[in-house]
């Protein structure tokens, strides 16, 4: 799972989590400065990451996590979990956490696009969605560049830093990804 990033010819890759990745994951989820404004939800059980890794290596039937790696350097991780959309239907909801030094370089766009391709290649879900706070303009741009469509505002959706906050819902469906492939092919023809 490789894709070149906007600022480098080195491909960004997603790979399974290894035990030596756990300290970085713990820092990105349990350190206020590393998590950043929109990913800081307060301190939580510090052993959570290690228990989940010991349980299933972060790859379960209904949820998972993969490391985002650039040129052999860990830059963050992506995650997904199954969400009910109807009485007999589900979709994936994805998330992304990047190390502070990896933000703002297009890596989030690439990682989310790679994750969508991975999920559609290896599962039968037809929809992948993501939400982000309405004030998180960088993530909104990353999702749009990754091919997600903005579907609407979810009022009072997430609680962070003492306040209920509006979120924006984005989604991509399987047929959208087919058009990504058409775009790549058209770009090759134009060269």
Structure characteristics:
191 residues; alpha+beta; eight-stranded mixed sheet; 8 strands; globular; disordered C terminus
Question: How does the SSE layout of this entry go?
Answer:
Elements lengths: L1 E4 L2 E9 L5 H9 L1 H4 L12 H9 L6 E8 L2 E12 L5 E9 L8 H16 L4 E7 L3 H9 L3 E12 L2 E11 H17 L1
Parallel strand pairs: 5-6
Antiparallel strand pairs: 1-2, 2-3, 3-4, 4-5, 6-8, 7-8
Helix pairs in contact: 4-5
Please provide the count of β strands. 8
What percent of residues adopt helix (DSSP H or I)?
25-40%
What's the alpha carbon Rg, rounded to whole Å? Answer: 17 Å
The helix-and-strand class reads: alpha+beta
**Hey, roughly how much beta strand do the residues contain?**
35-45%
Give the distance, in angstroms, between the N- and C-terminal Cα atoms.
24 Å
Tell me the strand order in the biggest sheet.
1-2-3-4-5-6-8-7
- Low-confidence segments, ≥5 residues, pLDDT <50? 184-191
Q: What is the N-to-C order of secondary-structure elements (H for helix, E for strand)?
A: EEHHHEEEHEHEEH
Q: Overall pLDDT, averaged?
A: 89
CA-based shape: globular
Number of helix segments? Answer: 6
What is the makeup of the main sheet? 8 strands, mixed
Overall description:
- This protein has six helices and eight strands.
- It has 191 residues and is of the alpha+beta class.
- An eight-stranded mixed beta sheet has the order 1-2-3-4-5-6-8-7, with helices on both faces.
- Mean pLDDT is 89; it is low at 184-191.
